[in-house]
Amino acid sequence: MNDREFMYVKKDDPRDMVTACPAYLTVYLTLCLAVILSLCLTLIDGVRRNGARLEAECIADIGLHSIMAEYHRELMKQYNLFAIDSSYGTASCGKANTEAHLGRYLTKNLNHEDIFLSGVLYGDFLALGLEQAELKKVSILTDRGGAVFRKRAVEAVMADVGLDLMGELQDWMQVVEVNGLEEGKEEQRKQELDGQIGGWVSEYDGKAIEIEEGEWEILRLHNPTDGLEAKKRMGILKLVLEEGADLSPNVLYTENLIMNRMAQNQVNRGNMGDMTGSKVGQAVEKFAFQEYLLQYMGRYGMEYEEDALRYQVEYLVAGKESDVENLRSVANRLCTLREAANAMYLLTDETRYGEIRLAASLVCTLIFLPELIPLLEGAILLAWAYAESIYDVRSLLAGGKVPLLKDGDSWHYSLSAALGGGLQDRTQEGKGLGYADYLRIFMMFTDTDTLTARAMNMVEADIRKTPGNRAFRLDGCFDALEACIQIGSRHGFRFEITRQKSYD
Q: In Å, how far are 77, 321, 501 from 66, measured between CA atoms?
């Protein structure tokens, strides 16, 4: 090609480019939309899956909260205890009943049929349904010998318990233990002395003795405490209660109660780990438990008419089946403790012990038997202590107070009044410990497991007296539970949710 020749290059026709663009865009948009659509579908599936998981967890929590809200109303009303009665007012209790209730709650919340025009305006995007609701573990109030029950009782009163009173209670217990006030040695010693004095009486009573040369006298011997012993045989309640006192006739039939079923190993048991770990020490826990019992159970002078027993705290201490027997047992125990404390005081009071010595010497001088003086001294001292203890118990049951260890100012009976055997003096308010304080001492000396079992007996018996709770059982009351809930979707995914719930 020479210099004058030119290469001709054909230029693109704009009309051809316009014709080609739609084809390029179609391919481009098709590829983009495929990616975008895949992304959107993936996002939608993720939203569906995560939304389904969230809804499943929310519904599981709502269902379990609904179950926990079914706590037994009478148990809460009377004893401030929260627990699920797994019998739901029927004759049988167990996990199956609670599982059925849980299943109904979950199914109802998963079902959208009650939504207005749900089939027309609203489609079930998640399509969830309940597959299974199972209680894997439960904690029952009676587990570990009632430790769960005791823990809940302590929690119910812990905020109201004053630890100053606990310190005083420990001091009272120390006085009782150190001085052996509950050992009952005084009554045994009195019987021994009476037996020895009786031997002298049988040997010398009616004998003629020579007083002076040619003068004889017939000996008439008697124990100066015989009148008081005759009173003692009347029974403690006749001595310490006002004449015509209205005593409760209630009787507790324990054959079908929790304590008897525990002894026969016929109770339901939970399978949760030990959840009874207390945040307080054993001494504080037992003290708080006793305060709970005193607050929520009746006793003599503070009876609850609707309860199975009116003297419930006395039952916790004595364990008898009738109110009268429980009150008699506690009154005897009070009398024994007070007699020991009063005898100890008389031995240390020089003035009053001098009166005892003088009375014994006078009697033995009149009957010419000085050998009897030591025996009569002991018998008179114990009789005087017993008479004073009767007055003390009368005062306590009448709402008065009696110090654990008496002094001259708090002593009531004179020696002549005590041996006279009247024992019907009007009581005074006094200072010291009240009846509830002595019950605190007795409960503290009672084995914790025994005290707990008797308390559960009372709770079970009381609840059974209320309408619709004739078959109530404490070993059917769930305090905590662990549920495994399986929820599936028609879209192919499935969730398993495990939750623990309790009344903590």
A: 19, 39, 11
End-to-end CA, the chain:
103
β partners of residue 130: 487
Place of tokens 């630890």: 163
Q: For the residues 380-398, what does the mean pLDDT come to?
A: 94
Backbone angles phi, psi at 411, to 5 degrees: -75, 145
**CB of 489 within 8 A of CB of 127?**
yes
Spatial separation of the C-alpha atoms in residues 6 and 4, rounded to whole Å: 6
N residues, the chain: 504
Whether the pLDDT of residue 255 is over 50: the answer is yes
The structure's pTM equals: 0.85
Strand residues in 143-268 grouped as ranges (E):
208-212, 215-218
Separation of alpha carbons 139 and 84, rounded Å: 10
Span 54-82, pLDDT tens digits:
989 999 999 999 999 999 999 999 999 99
**Rounded to 5 degrees, what angle do the CA atoms 158, 160, 165 make?**
95
- Bridge partners of 216, per DSSP, are 210
